[in-house]
Design goal:
The protein is an alpha+beta fold. The protein folds into two domains: 15-76, no CATH class; 85-148, no CATH class. The protein has six helices and six strands, in the order H-E-E-E-E-H-E-H-H-E-H-H. The strands form two sheets. It has a four-stranded antiparallel β-sheet with strand order 1-2-3-4, with helices on one face.
Length: 149
């Protein structure tokens, strides 16, 4: 925990990321922001962007292995929007970095060797399953509880 931050979260989402997400979300009509403090030093304050009391975007960070924040952006999307979100691609370097930060250095090396660059979410999901990395493993390493996901 950072000195002078006793009782609060040890990590926070970097301010430049917070501002970019706030600007995009607040440009939409009827958006309100809810800020929820964290009782867990490994998780940051959560910022929820809501329309009519229902969240559509959640911004939070967790503490990485080096003590630096790893921002997480969660979006709620209907079936029509999911296709566009699933078409997103990631570099194999990003995937390897996440795997290392979760304590999987050997899988990180394999990802750099095996995965296309960039890789889409469907390919990544299949690769994870072939290597025994489940959705619950990922949620657990991100500080969540698989049962509540």
């Amino acid at each position: 925990m950072r000195p002078g931050n006793e009782g609060g979260p040890a990590v926070e989402v970097p301010e430049d990321i917070v501002e970019r997400i706030r600007t995009l979300c607040l440009a939409l009509p009827e958006v309100t922001v809810r800020v929820d403090g964290s009782l867990n030093p490994a998780r940051s304050t959560a910022q929820s962007f809501d329309i009519r009391r229902r969240w559509f975007c959640l911004l939070v960070a967790r503490e990485g292995s080096a003590g630096k924040p790893i921002p997480l952006l969660m979006l709620r999307a209907g079936p029509d929007e999911r296709d566009a979100l699933q078409a997103m691609q990631y570099s194999n370097q990003e995937v390897a970095h996440m795997l290392r930060s979760w304590g999987y250095p050997q899988l990180a090396d394999e990802a750099l060797r095996d995965l296309a660059d960039p890789v889409d979410l469907d390919e990544l999901r299949e690769w994870n399953l072939r290597h025994g990395l489940t959705r619950d493993d990922i949620i657990s390493h991100m500080g969540g509880s698989p049962e509540s996901a």
